[in-house]
Structure formats: structure tokens, C-alpha cells
Amino acid sequence: MTPILQAAALLRDSHRPVFFTGAGVSQESGIPTFRDAQVGLWARYAPEDLATPEAFERQPKLVHGFYEYRRKLIRQCVPNAAHRAIAALEKTKPEVRVVTQNVDGFHRTAGSTHVIEVHGDIFLDRCNDECAGLHPHDEPTEEPGICPRCGDRTMRPAVIWFGEMLDQTVWSAAVQAVEACDLMVMIGTSGLVYPAAGLPREVLRAGKPLIEINPEETPMSSSVTLHLRGRAAEVLPEVVELALQR
Ligand code: BV8
Q: Is 117 helix (H, G, I), strand (E, B) or coil?
């Protein structure tokens, strides 16, 4: 049986699949991954160097500009066939859960309703002094906004930066979804960033099947149950279609 047919059989028999996704699932929508070289002004920066509280403290306008650049790019792109396949599967398997490292919101836009965004949402701001809740960031701005509640001048993206703790409520929901799953499909992630990268490893520790969809090898590839070497928007719709055939 080919790996694609094996993956379809595992997905067909699954009642509580979790899709664990990274930047690669949005790559075919036109959103560069973190491993991809950035373009233009951002070519000289590694995202990891801009996605930190220290960078924002030091150069708030630069970091603000980085996020406005990414929001503008995301607004120009749409979810792809991989996002849509996961959303479609939910109609047959209502227990489907998505745990994503991405902040682009594309799984929700595609129609998935149980999405856990462990690294936050780029279209929300939060007060840098943590006094306020979350505020939509729908319109581009030249510089960080002013907190409507405390007047602090440095609203920041409501994403989790390197060196920051994850939101404990969100993280607990992700851990619970993974503990409850009977299958994980890991798509488009290099599996390097913790604690999120610990989730697929937990699936293996629990002796549950782990399918990887990625055109490249990753540190997880030698341990997963099945590695489907290919692009998410090509491979996943085929696996879902075969899984739904009776
Ligand atoms: C934490 C949101 C506790 C922001 C992101 C020193 C001090 C403090 C912490 C650490 C430290 N050293 C290490 C750590 C832990 C650190 C970490 O893991 N660092 C790594 C680099 C080693 N983690 C943290 O800091 C986390 N917090 O630990 O808190 C703590 C706190 C204080 C002190 C100590 C501990 C917070 C991490 C969250 C960071 N925020 N995003 C934003 O988006 O701007 S991470 C960001 O990078 C993404 O969200 C994602 O998680 C990660 C990128 O990974 P991927 O998604 O996998 O993307 P990548 O580009 O790497 O890979 C893409 C893959 O897709 C590739 O494999 C490619 O082959 C594949 N692909 C490409 N095209 C396709 C495809 N696949 C399918 N189809 C295609 N078409």
C-alpha cells in the first residue's frame, strides 16, 4: 500500500485527528516560511531577531513595520487547498482539532472551527504593559498604537515572541487536544520551536500514529509513522479525499 493510501486509511479510521501546522501550510498561499529568505527591507533580518520583546523595546517602529509588512502580505493572500481540506474534513469528523503555530488566521478563514493558535493572532494588538485586553488591528498604522485603556503608547502584536511564555489557557487547550487525539498530522513545520515542537513528540511517546507532510526532511522525519514528502496543498487534499471515500 502506498504511503498516501496508508495515510488515508489512518485518517479514515481516526475519530479525533489533530492537525499540527507550521509556516509550510501557508507557503502555497504565498506567505514565506520562517526558513525562507525574507525579501526587500526584511532580507537583512532573521524573523527570530525581530520577533522578540527586546527588539520591540529597542526598535518599536522597526518591529511594528515588520508586522505591518506581514499583515499586508497576508491580506493579499488566501487560504490554500490544504487549509480548505482540513476545514472540509471537519464536516465529516467534527472532532477534528487544529493546533497551529501560524499567526495568519488562515485555518479560521478557510472554515475550521476548532483552531488553537498557540503563537497568537497577527491581526490582534495587545497593550505592551499588559493592562488591556486584545484589540483588533485591522488598519495599517505608521507606528505602534496607543492603548485605549491606559494610554500607553506602545501597543504590540498579540503574538508570542521568542523568549515569551505562551498563553497558559491556549497552551492547555493545545495539550488537551493532543492528549485526546488518536492521530496527529504534522504539516509544514520544521519542528524546531518549543514548547510547540514538543507536541508531535508527545504523540509518539503515547504510541499514537504521527503523519508528517513536508517536502523536506525534518528532525522528526526519522521517527514519524509516515512521512509524505510533498507540498501541503498537493498532498493533503488527496489524503482527505481518499479517506472520505467509502
Ligand atoms: C518559551 C509567533 C518559555 C511570532 C513564533 C532562550 C531564551 C528563551 C527561550 C528559548 C531560548 N532558547 C530556546 C528557547 C525556546 C524558544 C525556542 O524554541 N527557540 C528555538 C529557535 C530553539 N521558544 C520560545 O521562546 C517560546 N517561549 O520558550 O517560553 C521561556 C520563556 C522565557 C525564558 C525561557 C523559556 C516562544 C516561541 C514562539 C515564538 N513565536 N511565532 C511571529 O510569527 O511573528 S515562532 C515562529 O517560528 C512560528 O510560529 C513557528 O513556530 C516557528 C517557525 O517554525 P515553522 O512554522 O516550522 O516554520 P519554518 O519556516 O521553521 O519551517 C517551515 C517548514 O515548512 C519547513 O520544514 C519546510 O520544509 C516546510 N514547507 C515549506 N513549504 C511547504 C512546506 N511544507 C508543506 N508544504 C509546503 N508547500
A: strand
